[in-house]
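Schema walk-through. Below, the input block comes first and the output block second. Nothing else is stored per chain. Lengths vary across the set, and this one has 384 residues.
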Amino acid sequence: MKTEITLDDKNIIVMKLLHYFITEKNYNPIILQGVENEIWLENLNEDYKVIRIVSAYIHNDEQFAFDRFKTKRIMKKIKHKTLSFSMNVLSIFLDLGDNVENYLEENPNLLCVKVKDEDDLKKSTVIKRIFPDLDTNLKYPEKGIDLFVKITNDINKHNKEDASKIEKVFRSKFPMITYMLIAMNVIFYVVPLLFGQYGNIIEQFCIHGPSIRAGQYYRLITGIFLHGNLLHLTFNCYALYVIGGQLESFLGKVKFLIIYLIGGLSGALFSMIFGGNYASIGASGAIFGLMGSLVYFGYHYRVYLGNVIKSQIIPLIITNLLLGYLMSGIDNSAHIGGLIGGAIITVALGIKDKSSTFEKINGWIITAIFLVFAIYMAFIYVIR
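--- output ---
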C-alpha cells in the first residue's frame, strides 16, 4: 500500500524558496547557534547578501521589534566576519500576525516581506524589484513527495558542485613557479658572489632611476632578483616560499607569475619616483604585490579566509610598512607600489568562479591607468 505524504503550504513555500535561492542564486546556508524557526542564507555577490526565511509566528509589534533587534546583532557579527562595511538583508516572514503593523517600515538595509501564500510572493513589489525572476521559478509540475524529492536532490547536487569547486581552489598544488623564482634569486646571489663579481652585478643591474631613464629599462626587472646580503636574500625567499606557495596554488601558475612581475615592476617604478637617485634591489616589491593579491583573493573567499586576512595578512602588511618607515635602508616606496600593483592586476586577471567580466574589464582599465601614470611620473615628470 502506498503512503501519501502531504506537506502544508508553509513547508512547500520554504522548500521552493530554498530551491530558488540555493540553486538559482547561489546562496549558501549560514549555520547560527540558538536561532530557531528561521533559515539564513548568504551570497556576498548579491545586492541583498543575506536572506532570512522566518517561519516562527510573530504576534505583535513588540515581538517584531525584538526580531529586528536580534537580526541587527547577528548581521553585525556577519559583517565583521566577512569584512563587509554594509550588508542588506531581506527577511521573508511566513507567519506574521495581523497585529504587526511596522513591517512595512522603509529601511533598504533591512527589508521585510509578509508572505502567507505564493500569491503574496508574486504580488510583492519588494520581491519583484530585487528578484524579478522568482515568480517563474516557483512553478513545479511535481507535487507532494515528488516535489520534496526533486528539491532535495537539486539542492544536494548544487551543494556537491559548490564543494567540488571550493576543493579545487584550496587543494594543495605543487608551487613550481614559486620554487623557480626562489631558485633564480639564489642563483643571482650565489653565482656572482663565487666569482667575485657581485658588486659589479649590482651596479649594472640594480634599480637606478638615472640609468633606467637613460635607456637601461631591463633594470626594472633585473633589480627585483638581486639582494644586498644573505639575510636580505633569506628573508625574501622565506616570504616568497610562504606567501607565493599559497597564492600560486589558489590562482594558478600563469596568473601568479604575472602578479609577481607586475608587483615587482610597480615597486621599481615607485622606487624611481620616490627614491631619488638612490639604487634599489630586492624582491620585496614583488612580494608585497603577492600580499596585495592575497588580500583581494581573500576578500572573495572571506567566508573561508576572513579571519586569516584580518588576523595575519593585513597586520603583516601594516607591520612591514611601519618597519620600512622606522628603519633605514628599506625602500618602502617599492613596497607600496608593489602592493598596489599586485592588487589591481589581480582584479584584472580575476578570481575563478568569483569575478565577473565587468570587474575584470574595470581591473584592466585601472591597471593600465596606474601603470601609465607611474611611468609618466617616473620618466617624464621627474625629468621635467
